[in-house]
Amino acid sequence: MAMHCNSVFLSSCSYLNRTKLFSTQSPSLHPSSSSDLPITFPNRTKLQNIRLARHISAVVSEKNAVGSSFSGNNSIKLTYLEGNSWLWEVGGVRILVDPILVGNLDFGVPWLYDAAKKILKSFQLKDLPELDCLLITQSLDDHCHQKTLKPLSKMFPDLRVISTPNAESILNPLFGSVTYLEPGQSSEIEGKNGSKVGVRATAGPVLGPPWQRPENGYLIISPQSELTIYFEPHCVYNQAFLQKEQADIVITPVIKQLLPSFTLVSGQEDAIKLASLLQAKYVVPMNNGDLDSKGFLSSILYSEGTIESFKELLSRELPDAKVLMPIPGEPLEISTASRVP
Fold first, then answer.
1. Which UniProt keywords apply (predicted)?
2. Residue 9: which residues within 8 A CB-CB, separation 6 or more?
């Protein structure tokens, strides 16, 4: 049985009156047929045919994300902000993902766990560009960080938000335009430049009893760049849900994070299976456990696997896929280009 680390944090606090440890389970639901998305998500066969007519190139920009100019509708720029946080530009649409930009990550119990970023220590809310959407995957503090979201809502009071319904009690008091997506449901983001991208929720981990609603992963598709991203920050996914999907770019943890007898974040072989399932061209690893941490739990947390061991596994199972390592604060640019005859 796998367990989500947030549940361990919350369960350890007597004042929260939690007496049962919540487990992280792979969701068992099947894809929903409901959709309110005008943008059509291509099926796997159609995407394979598209790939015959073009190839994908990737470069790492030398410009730092802070103050950098995001432009160009035919590319995707992924800027890792450490932890679970990202700043994306997809087809000209700017998306902030699971941000932790104010204070540390401590779940309200710093004696138990208190973590700070290692590299982007000076990155602040004021350094963000204009945003088109806030994307939230999970309802707990390492994804839905209230110390960040409260001032963010004051800076961007009209910001569009797409989230798991599990975070409704946190987001509703802060933001006026929130779309809650169940796994299988879709929506659309329109950028200030008129570009549009599609968002489809997928099934992530279950934080609680088996009948509880799973948290979200997401498929992001850009008609402008003809690229699709898959993102889920704990490498927990429903295989049946994803077997008809395809993603050019898979953003996932690849290094496991564990407590004694419990898996907090998966990776390694599970990340390989995910990339193979989605027929990924690129895997962008996120090392969301690489933080300066202290407290009791940090003394018993440990990791399993390395980036190099993941690359070796990937080269055997999916030899055409490439690993693109994000550098915190620097945009990783991925674009399509016409195939030269």
1. Hydrolase
2. 107, 109, 112, 113, 297
Q: How far apart are the first and last CA of the chain?
A: 51
What are the tens digits of pLDDT across the range 177-195? 999 999 999 999 999 989 9
Note whether residue 166 is domain-resident.
yes
Q: How far is CA 251 from CA 125, 151, 171, in A?
A: 23, 27, 25
The count of structural domains within the chain is 1
Angle at 135 between CA 278 and CA 94, to 5 degrees: 90
Cα(214)–Cα(26) distance, rounded to whole angstroms? 8
Which helix (H) or strand (E) segment holds residue 95: the answer is: strand 93-97
Q: How many CB atoms lie within 10 A of CB 157?
A: 11
Instruction: For residues 174 and 146, give the distance between their C-alpha atoms in angstroms, rounded to a whole number.
Output: 10
> Which of 261, 61, 234, 246 has its CA nearest to residue 143?
234
- CATH code of the domain containing 189: 3.60.15.10
pTM reported for the whole predicted model: 0.83
pLDDT in tens, 2-12: 344 444 443 33
User: E-assigned strands of 112-163?
Assistant: 114-116, 133-136, 160-163
Q: In a 3-state reduction of DSSP, which class is residue 2? A: strand
